[in-house]
């Protein structure tokens, strides 16, 4: 198994959700609103949340380095708190205009580490923002860079303009290419793109053309998703699940793996490929069962009490941004196994046993015996072999049944 990526900070990651989109895509089930007229009210509320939500989060381990006793420490999301990664997702963060972008970045500025904090970590600082090709401008990229953003995740999805129109995206393949050129010209080299597959009627040849177009862009990170018909979306009313061929989707997944690994990408997580060591650090730390703070309506976080969300309705968030709603999370120990096993790094069994107080080998002996040819335990980490990855769902069902 590859060497793990582990931050030394208790809460290494911060997720900030920008819930605005200039239009709504027909397949989307994320928390978002097309009411961009409320962005300024949202920014005011976010500012309040940063001020009043401070005591919610646990103390960062680096505070002990400053010689403070535990009762003197200021727990929480306070200025000066170090995060190994910050991820601004959405929604569409690039839907904010330049002035709104500058204000958001100014609010988040205190959470960016200084050089002395960075020197305490073996890992780099990663600050990602999601963007859509149609709302990218050179001025926004310059603001992002100046604030410390060093990675951009572009919502490309496909280079087929008819497919883009079918799923309600507002950009074209040409705009995607220009967006990548612009990012590179402005000095952002760490670019991630999404590739969607499994459109109704899509053939392997059509997928190949999409993969060719992605490879031509020389991007170091790809996230792949099959088209999912989520309940309540426009697309789910327009087409039926029977229009999507499950066997063909499985063949497409294989084709993507074959072509990307041949092109030098590491398939490091079920849906993620990277080359030149540009793994997505933010998600990797979360898959490692890391804790993450969350800001903004629609943002979910995880602390020692479990998974939490903000108020469900946007108006309720504006009234009380500090509300935290803990989700029913009956199996956090299983969740940690599930996310860890999706990656090439697997699960740190010692840390897992300590955190959840469970004897892993005793509890899962039957599962380990049954899948002994697919599960690997090496240097105290549990992982799955290449062929085991293909059976991961069945393996996970067995882990779940042993709960
Ligand atoms: S841009 Fe993203 S978040 Fe917004 S509607 Fe489309 S898929 Fe959903």
Which SSEs are present, and which pair or pack?
Blueprint lengths: L12 E6 L20 H14 L32 E6 L7 H11 L6 H5 L6 E6 L6 H10 L3 E7 L3 H6 L6 H13 L5 E7 L6 H13 L4 E6 L7 H5 L7 H17 L3 E4 L2 E3 L6 H7 L4 E4 L5 E3 L2 E4 L4 H6 L5 E2 L5 H10 L5 E2 H8 L3 H4 L1 H6 L4 E4 L2 E4 L1 H5 L1 H10 L2
Parallel strand pairs: 1-2, 1-9, 2-3, 3-4, 4-5, 5-6
Antiparallel strand pairs: 6-8, 7-8, 10-11, 11-12, 13-15, 14-15
Bound molecules: iron/sulfur cluster (SF4).
The site of iron/sulfur cluster has 11 residues, from loops.
CATH topology of the largest domain: Transcription Regulator spoIIAA
Number of domains: 2
- Rounded mean pLDDT is 88
Please state the second-level CATH architecture of the largest domain: 2-Layer Sandwich
What's the overall geometry?
A: globular
Q: Based on helices, strands and strand pairing, what is the structural class?
A: alpha/beta
Helix content: 25-40%
Helix count? Answer: 17
Q: Major β-sheet, in short? A: 9 strands, mixed
Cα radius of gyration in angstroms = 21 Å
**How many extended strands?**
15
End-to-end distance: 26 Å
Task: State the low-pLDDT regions, or none.
Answer: 55-76
Tell me the strand percentage band: 15-25%
The CATH class name of the largest domain reads: Alpha Beta
Cross-sheet strand order for the largest sheet: 7-8-6-5-4-3-2-1-9
List the bound ligands: iron/sulfur cluster
């Amino acid at each position: 198994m590859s060497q793990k990526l582990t931050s030394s900070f208790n809460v290494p990651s911060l997720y900030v959700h920008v819930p605005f989109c200039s239009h709504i895509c027909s397949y989307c089930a994320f928390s978002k609103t097309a009411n961009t007229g409320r962005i300024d009210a949202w920014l005011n509320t976010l500012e309040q949340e940063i001020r009043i939500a401070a005591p919610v989060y646990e103390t960062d381990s680096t505070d002990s380095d400053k010689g403070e006793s535990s009762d003197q420490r200021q727990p929480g999301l306070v200025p000066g708190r170090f995060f190994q990664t910050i991820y601004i997702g959405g929604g569409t963060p690039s839907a904010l205009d330049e002035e709104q972008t500058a204000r958001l970045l100014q609010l988040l500025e205190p959470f960016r580490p200084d050089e002395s904090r960075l020197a305490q970590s073996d890992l780099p600082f990663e600050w990602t923002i999601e963007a859509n090709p149609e709302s990218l401008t050179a001025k926004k990229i310059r603001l992002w860079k100046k604030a410390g953003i060093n990675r951009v995740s572009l919502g490309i999805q496909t280079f087929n303009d008819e497919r883009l129109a079918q799923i309600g995206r507002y950009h074209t393949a040409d705009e995607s290419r220009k967006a990548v050129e612009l990012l590179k010209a402005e000095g952002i080299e760490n670019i991630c793109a999404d590739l969607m597959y499994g459109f109704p009627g899509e053939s392997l040849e059509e997928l190949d053309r999409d993969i060719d177009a992605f490879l031509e862009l020389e991007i170091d990170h790809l996230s792949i998703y099959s088209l999912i018909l989520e309940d309540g979306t426009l697309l789910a009313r327009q087409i039926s699940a029977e229009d999507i061929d499950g066997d063909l989707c499985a063949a497409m997944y294989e084709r993507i793996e074959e072509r990307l690994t041949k092109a030098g990408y590491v398939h490091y997580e079920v849906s993620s490929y990277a080359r030149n060591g540009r793994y997505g650090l933010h998600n990797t730390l979360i898959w490692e069962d890391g804790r993450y703070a969350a800001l903004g309506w629609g943002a979910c976080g995880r602390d020692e009490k479990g998974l939490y969300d903000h108020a469900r309705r946007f108006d309720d968030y504006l009234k009380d941004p500090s509300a935290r709603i803990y989700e029913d999370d009956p199996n956090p120990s299983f969740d940690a196994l599930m996310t860890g096993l999706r990656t090439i790094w697997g699960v740190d069994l010692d840390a897992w046993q300590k955190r959840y107080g469970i004897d892993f080998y005793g509890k899962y002996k039957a599962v380990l015996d049954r899948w002994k040819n697919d599960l690997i335990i090496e240097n105290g980490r549990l992982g799955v072999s290449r062929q085991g990855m293909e059976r991961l769902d069945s393996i996970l069902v067995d882990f779940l049944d042993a709960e």
